[in-house]
Protein: Bifunctional 2',3'-cyclic-nucleotide 2'-phosphodiesterase/3'-nucleotidase
Organism: Janthinobacterium violaceinigrum
Amino acid sequence: MKTNWVMLAALASAGLVGCNGSSNTPATPAIPEGTTVTVALLETTDIHSNVLSYNYYALAEDTSLGLERTSTLIQAARAENPNNVLLDDGDVIQGTLLADLQAVAAPVPCSGTLAVHKAMNALKYDAGGMGNHEFNYGLAYLSQITNTDFGIPGVAKPTGTCGAPAFPSVLSNVVGVSSGKPIFQPYTVLPRDFAATAPDGSKLTVKINVGVLSFVPPQILEWDQKVLAGKVSVTGVQEAAKQYVPELRSKGADLVVALSHGGLDTSAYSPKMENGSYHLTSTGIDALMIGHSHLIFPKGKEEGAAALDASFAAFPASAKIDAVNGFVNGVPTVMAQSWGRRLGIIKLTMAYQGGKWVVQPAKTSVESRGFKYTDGKTLVKADPAIAPLVATEHAATIAYAKQPLGISTDFEMSAYFALVGDVSAIQLVNQAQLDYVKNFIATSTDATLSSYKNIPVISCSAPFKAGRNGPSDFTDVAAGATPAAPVGLQVRNPGDLYLYSNNNLQAVKIKGSDLKAWLETSAKQFAQIDPASSAEQDLVPSYGTIYNYDVFYAENNALTYQIDVTKPAGSRIVNLTYKGAAVADGDDFIVATNDYRAGGGGAVPGIDGSKTIIKSPDANQAVVSNYLASLSTKGGKVTLAANGSARSWSFVKTATAGPVILRSAPGHLALAQGSGIANVAAEGGLDASGFAKYRIDLSK
């Protein structure tokens, strides 16, 4: 006879079916063996305060990004999957002028709530993890805007209840130094009632306890040393997971989800790995949601989706990474790009077997869904409910962005062709950093620093906005309509030139051998080009780590070097000279850079904090602003001749049988030619991500 599980459950809840022969004790109805439940785990990651589809640096709408459009994807996914949990993987509170306004220029009070948190609260997130950028503005600020007392001496949360996320904030691998306790709750258990299906096809409601963990890169101690030193310590992701996954299971977690703010590094495990997510798959978790790398995993399923990122396609077979279906060592895994451009969806089925819920991999699917998921062509519309929530903050940010700096420019500073030599958006940053360090040493009363006065000072900076986040993600500071009447620079422009407001200027003392190793590390951004191949070759296989492509500069363009992209990584730098003479291994240099790079970010050999001689209290972005202000007070202006044409590097000339391609924003060929980059030609057409393909003639 067919069993009516729904009727049995009703009788049990009414006390008519008891345990041990008693008719008086209510009993929880047994879940029939073989019952199945399908749950959709939804992920956003690396939102970086992109609430609206708007670019504050360009003061223009940008329909390729924004949580207001992700909201539309979320609503659709919820309609498709009534059993759902919405989670965020961190890097929420920093990344736009809106974020800087609320954290620095006009700090949000305890009584207020961050604009991005207003939107997330309206979307009813179930839980959120942390990213490295959550720490950029300091622990006191993070404590306030999450309404969390960290228990750290000297870090006081304002009295009372502050505006904060309406969902649990979780972090599993950061503890207070003095207390030895996690600063956030290390995990949360979310009890959810989900619709399930019994073996006979009847429907019933089951309680599923969803456990959520969160991990950040250990490198936060280096990247934000100025605000974290002596206050917190970080555990390796695997060690933290091995501690807390069993705790979650003992507290009844049926499903354990790891929010890991790190990419997939398949090298041997180290507790200090920046991208240790791969190694979480061996800790007993059921699902893995990752971020930090701003990449798409698995490959997009919409029509015309871009090919897999090279960093995923290059994994060895032994790594057991299925980048098409979204599994890492058998664990369903998703990364939803960045800036709200995608929604990660892990739709998994669990079966009740032997008294517990067991994930069924064969019935689990993974998707990183983009804005074109319906027909592959039409962008989803923004959710009209989001913009009114942040209208006041949006207007205030635009007003802030338009504040004049009091100086003008006679040329367009852009990064569209920074990867083939255009320095128009980099030289000014390098000049500002170099000027700062020279003045710092010249005016220092420290005997050691004073002894460095005769050592050459050079500077390096990366084209931070050069396509990492899509074809709208390029530095572009407009020139005036005519040289005689240029547009004045505004508050928004230094942030366009130097994206990271949290970076502080530092200087390192190095040898010529260190400089060459540094340049070799930067040159890893390029593919190894085969001159004999007639097939199309991408000059830059991945734009995901473009922030590690440092371009060096010395006054009067005294430092020059070439890159031979036909050679393997590590053997590409040739003709490295300073003032016309070859740089010797023992030559001394002082390099103006940022705290991320000086402390080991980017894994430059030997640059690990041990060579740092200056730790400035000033942010690199502020150094650029102040440099512009100093030019203004002297009656100067920013000119192409003085501030945007000193190209320190070039490619070794190489004829190729087939086309070599650079992907950049469409419609800027004339800008390349106007900047003196003569080896660029339009190849024609857009790729699936909206990038134009420009042909690079390496023989010129």
Remarks:
- The first strand starts at residue 36 and ends at 44.
- The chain has two domains: 35-393, 405-696.
- The radius of gyration is 27 Å.
